[in-house]
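Narrative of activities, Objective 1.

The group set out to show that a structural description can be obtained from nothing but a protein's sequence at a throughput compatible with the screening campaign. Below is one input-output pair from the validation batch, recorded exactly as produced.
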Amino acid sequence: MLNFHLINVVLCDCVSVVLGQNGWSVTYTTQSICALKGSTVDLSCSFRYPRGHKVTSTFWFTEWGTEDIGLDPEYAGHVEYHGDKEKDCTLRITDLRERDSSTYWFRLLTDQEGGTYTGSPGVTLSVTGLQVKVTGGHQDKTLTCSTTCTLTDNPTYIWYKNGQHLDESTSPQYKSSVSSNYIDGYSCAVKGQEDLHSPAVCVQGQDCNRVTYTKRRICVLKGSTVAISCTYVGYNRVKSSLWFSPKQSASWTNKLTPEDLTRDPGYAGRVEYAGRESETYEGPSSLRITDLREEDSAEYRFPFKTQNFEWGHSFPGTTLSVTGNTTLYDTTVNHIELQEKINEPSC
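Output recorded for this entry:
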């Protein structure tokens, strides 16, 4: 049986299913998958067909989509068929969106009369984001890292308070006492998928400190220019702020003070900030990097300080990928047509 390969996803109801007749069969390694929005998942399966048949076509389809999701514009650039026409029918879906939630079936066609077979019951994919839910009274708040489908495989939850790493637990509930301070904001993530964290939420009212990144992942071409942006809220006036990358120092840890990118020799003359000098309560901040190099591929974060508060620097930011390649890819799972995407990065 083909092993189920998982990339940034959590599995549910891991039961192998084999259905078939007269030499036909499709084996789905699992019937149900719960994956985080923005992650990548492999729908793994294997198939068999009668002797004397030659497979002419293989494809996946959904309960609501077209006969071949490789032909569906909704999946353009998001699906890759990693199988073959012999026995492997693995489908990879990247950068998952909530609308990708569906049941997926695999179908094969051969050169013989009646040579069509669809594997049932398919794979049910549920895509969810993370959200911090706050319950309880004024003095006894409970925080829960909530999802719309149950994450199994014993995930470890990571908690952040005011942008700083706080705690890790196998329980989706934060077990320690919760601050009742109106300026404190909390967020959660699943270990190994920290860039898919929840938005920060206030535990008292709506006026807590927080940072929200415009995009969590950006992919651009070598030599181009990129703007990485976020919006911050400081309950007191922001006195200072900076952009940095944990990649700057091999010995960097959450306990060290991050270094301003403008002081990094590797970025000399190539970075500039917008919004960093204004002493405001809130607003946008943008990091602009010109003449991008592949070694600029890293995660970029934004911490700020007020007179009596500091937004920590362990909270995940925006991940930048710089590539020198354009994409040459199949527009369909069945390799019917090739199309070159000019000036479009391959990541």
